[in-house]
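Per-residue structure
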Amino acid sequence: MPGQLRPPPLGRMIEKLELLLHLARERHFGRAAQSAGVTQPTLSSAVKSLEDQFGVLLVERGSRFQGFTPEGQRILTWARQLSGDARAMRQEIEALRRNLSGELRVGVIPTALPIMTRLTLPFRERCRDVRLRIPSMASVEILATLDNLEIDVGISYLDSEPLGRFKGMHLYEERYALLTAPDGPFADRDSVGWLEAGSLPLCQLSSDMQNRRLIERHLRDAGANPTCTLESNSMLILYAHVRTGEWASIIPVCFAEEMARPGRLRAIPIVEPTITHSIGLILPNRETHTPNVSKFLRVAERVFARADELHPA
């Protein structure tokens, strides 16, 4: 029809939406332009073009970035979905032409890092041309970076953090142990209770970690008044300080077993009660995933006995 605006080609639309996602991640026009590899005027022009096309303001106007309007937030939701689907389509078509390649980004909570080789080794056997990037992240950071398409899949708690728009696939149950020096308190015991463990000077993960919040809750539920005199976001720091004999630490069994080398440290199961939390994969709740993510999910299903329990949040 004469005078009717024609929609831009889909490719150009997705490019503009991806620039909008950079702005959502960086919350600053200059940094967003730099991360996207474009000039700031190009980014601003893309945002203005989207606003003209949709007939609404997307960004709160001011001398600096102040946030997205309600309409902008809705378009961001669609931008994430469309950009994710476009990436999946491009990678799937590429996989039809040659072996899987590119990059798989897996955000992992620190306490699940020891199990990663159980997934990465069989994945590498099947996908040798795919690069793996595995940053250690807090559970809330995993959800945020998944939302902004900065990682492809997360490994985190399924039963203690609301997953929102994501779905989870159970991998294993996290259990807890007291890590202590060979001559430390309770070192001659086969198990300890939560109340006993809470009576010791502890070094723990920092309070922004979900693991720390869960452990403190279980200690208080047992009647303990835990004394944490050292905290860090590094498990290696905890390990080094437990070795001195001045501290003990409550950590997941999978990590405790890695650290408790013969003669160096002792990992004592914590019972009364035995507490577990579900650890699993977290991914966008969509029908299709990129070939790299789909292959990673199939590997996880084979490696972990209960991994077929895929359940929407």
Residues 70-97 form the longest helix (28 residues). Residues 1-7, 306-313 have pLDDT under 50 and may be disordered. The CA atoms of residues 67 and 146 lie 20 Å apart.
